[in-house]
Amino acid sequence: MAAYEAVIGLEVHVQLSTASKLFCSCPTSFGQPANSNVCEVCAGMPGALPVVNRQAVHYAALVGLATNCEVHRRSVFARKNYFYPDLPAGYQISQFDMPICEHGHLDVTVDGRSKRIGITRIHMENDAGKNIHAQGENISYVDLNRAGTPLVEIVSEPDMRSSQEAVAYLKALYGIVTYLGVCDGNMEEGSFRCDANVSIRPVGATAFGTRTELKNLNSFRNVQRAIEYEIARQQDALADGEAVVQETRLYDAVKNVTVSMRGKEEAHDYRYFPDPDQLPVEISAEEMERWRSELPELPQHRMARFLEMTGLPEAEAEVLVQSRALADFFESAAAASDARKAANFILGPLMRELNARGGDFSQCAMTADGLAELVRLVDKGVISAKIANDIFPDLFSTGAMPENYVKERGLVQISDSSALEAAVDKVLADNPAEVEAFKGGKTKLMSFFVGQIMRATRGKANPAMVNELLQKKLS
Question: What is the C-alpha separation between 395 and 417, in angstroms, rounded?
Fold first, then answer.
């Protein structure tokens, strides 16, 4: 089979976390009764005049600044004309030849190698409604609650060559928009979604192959699986002497296949023209400087600093910056304790608790001060690492401060040498055969003795002192 390389570009739609829609005052809240968040403007009634939401412009500019784009101080809204039941006006208000942001880039790292992904443009637009196809009924419904919700569409250059690069780029974008606070990042509710354009070409070729557009990609895992399937499908088609057809395909996550949705032989002619109801969007120099000053430390830069603080492998440091709330939590805990040990508690027991609860950090009742105190208790020998791990679920869910918690429950580590010596002597006396075997060369039995002593003391024995006493008595 001929050797091919993939050419991948992503179109990412980011729902902006404004309280109201892009051109009217209707709320953007999710999960409301159908058609309850609707007015004359978002319902596309003739004569209703839209007025742009200035907060949406602010948020779009922040995304552009954070992705190294040129943010234009003047941009223009246009009408994108097409007919679909969930588009009541018969056109979408978007931006065409004068978008708010252009010519940006993001740097991502895959398998230890850095790759720069170009960003062609970022433009604002209002979302369409939602078609609901009732099962068992020959009828469809339209819910316009989502119509008019503010979006930015981030269009990449076709610079990605693997599914791994596509996911790394998508995760980088996700981190940026959630750190900025301009998007809640809820992929299940459609707040952050993407379409992938995928083609293949012989290795060394410069001309692009025929591309397909993949839709219904609602998780990072599905983006990777869908792209990998589509690359393989196109390779098989060419190997069989078939042509790749330009079309839109849906990804079926259950079957892990892409299926044809509609042909797309030519680019759609949306007959764009400037929206006559909208004045150009103007951003003053003072506004631009003020917005630039609002930019937080973004995930990529924060991770580099965390790597230096902790000496962790890159994959583990990446976990610490997966959300701004978690990164803030770690940084506060690290400032009041040992950074590497605080990170280890987050990467181990804290992530275990989060994963058991669906990964929602808001469910963590433990404070950063609480985690720092737990690290210090272990460092000082007040409790063992085992006890710390055992009590972590309670501390996570209740927010109790560790020092009071262990004192109230009698969990303070036994570091009294006479008490430990008595426990060691009893375990050795109760296991004479193992003592003889150890002295005969079976040194792996040391862990057996330690385990017996920890069991006898309910995990409260100081492990370092136990090992020291055992070495002394068994030598």
Answer: 29
d(CA 144, CA 65): 32
Say if CB 412 and CB 388 are below 8 A apart.
Answer: no
pLDDT at 1 over 70: no
- Note whether 94 and 125 are within 8 A (CB): yes
- Reduced to 3 states, what is the DSSP secondary structure of residue 442? coil
Is the same domain home to 332 and 260? Answer: no
Alpha-carbon gap, residue 316 to 56, rounded angstroms: 34
- Residue 358: exposed, middle, or buried by beta-carbon count in 10 A (0-12, 13-18, 19+)? exposed
Chain length of the chain = 475
CATH code, 460: 1.10.10.410
Shared domain for 79 and 189, answered yes or no, is yes
Per-residue pLDDT at 286: 97
* Domain stop point among 353, 384, 408: 408
Q: How many secondary structure helices (H) and strands (E) does the chain include? A: 16, 16
219 lies in the same domain as 94:
yes
Instruction: Taking the CA atoms of 253, 254, 255 and 261 in sequence, report the sign of the dihedral they define.
Output: negative
**Domain that residue 12 falls in:** 4-287
Q: Is the pLDDT score of 266 beyond 70?
A: no
pLDDT recorded at residue 443: 80
Query: In 82-142, where does DSSP find H-type helix?
Result: none
* Closest listed residue to residue 361, CA positions, set 320, 317, 401, 331: 320
Q: For the chain, how are helix, strand and coil distributed in percent, rounded to 5?
A: 40, 20, 40
Between 47-61, 146-160, 443-457, the lowest mean confidence (pLDDT) is in 443-457
Q: Is residue 119 part of a domain?
A: yes
Q: What is the pLDDT of residues 8-34, one digit of tens each?
A: 999 999 999 999 999 999 999 988 999
